[in-house]
Design goal:
This protein is an alpha+beta fold. Helices cover 32% and strands 21% of the residues. The chain has two domains: 74-191 and 224-283 and 473-495, no CATH class; 287-459, no CATH class.
Amino acid sequence: MWSFNALSQIFPGVLAVLFGMSFSFSQIPNLQNYVDDALTQFPELAKIIDSPPLTTSFDDAVFGFPLLDDHEPEALRTLAEVPRSPSGAFLLEPGAYEGELHSYCLKPGTHGPGGGDGYLYGALRGPYADIVETILRESNSHNEISHGQIQMLLWAVISRAGIKGISPDLQWVAGRLLSWEQMYRLNGGALALVPKGTLEEVLGGVPKTVRKTLTAEASIREMLTRRNVSYADLERVAILTGVPSLNLSGPKIPKARWSVHPSGYLVRYFPEKVSRTRVQVWVPRHVTTKLDHLGRIVDVHDNWGNLLSLDYEDEGDPPRLLQSSDLRPAALNRLRWSRFDESGRVTETLILRGEASRTWYRQIRTPTDPAGVNAVQPGPHVGKDRYQDVIKRDRELERFSAGLPQECRHLSSVTPVLSNMVHLRNTLKSATHGSDPVARASLALLSDGIGAELRRQMSGKAGTHLARFTEFDPAPDVAVPASTGRQRLGLSARLH
């Protein structure tokens, strides 16, 4: 008989994967006995536990950028009006876009979206990630195939039902969307059917949350062998109603959080139901930033002729911020917004005064004062709440940079330009409440500047040349919820 210890050695992912459920085996009484008994009666359970076809989980959703939670584009173009590439990807110029896309359940046995949970971008990962991506991408050019048929094929892939055992109708769908090599792989990875009574007996002692996922996939495998199985029949098994239990909740993610996509844009998801997700995509305009000899931002301009200039109070050698060796305060006193209109270049000025106009920047030269001298601490000149807010923002930046996967992290830490722009944007928003037209235009430019700097940081490209179009292809992406009890969603470029 297989022992639990032997199982964990042979299948190294068994302790962590178990369908992405967030719990420790040590928290489940007698689980070793459950696994040993299960393997005696159902040897393929090891495959189910240790080799899920898709592995994308919340651990892969590291691209959320909380420091732009308050950014709302002033104008949204519809995705339906933009050109497409030969593969169906949307070709986007700088700006913000919105569209309702077909979305699909990629995790049977979990609850649909709802409850205010936010979704973040994560890449498709796992042994069958390329097959799922192909189905999602090819579905856009096959309008003769219904949404329900595509979802049923995805469930067949995820539950490892194979191709030769499913209904002729679904075999036809697979033949339209997949290559022969992909169908051959699916048949080779098909799992045998297990009588329902035997499966229930084997899994009877396994925690309810895990049992739901295992039994849902087993039920889908069995149902897909029937010629008359309908989408509605499978949906009742795959998509649970109600609310997930509290112990499946992850970190609280706002619904409006942007994710920084490695392809150079920002994206956020608003699932309306499993089959329909509203997506917003924001391609930052090209922004160039000029720093003075201290590292303070003095000019920000885009390639459309807009220019933001900033003047600071001369405070001599500024003190550094406690807990950071290079973060220092600076008092803004004036900003000038310059743009072109039909009469030529127009410049407007906004005067800022008081403590609310204080911003923060990373000094780019070596401090002249010894470490610890002139350190800013909470007091009359720097309110405690403001001080803590600055520290929190700076740590959030470092956490985001450190959390990126290696292939997306070309810089070892946050760049001074990114840090300074984040603090400057926050200062302008606090000092003006975004009510002045000059302030609104400046905030929009700084938001694009932050997005452009994130793109540079993740790509490692410092050049100024940008292609005219940025491709938005949702097929390789997953909309990932923080709650393990809710659906992870695949998306296609097919519009509702």
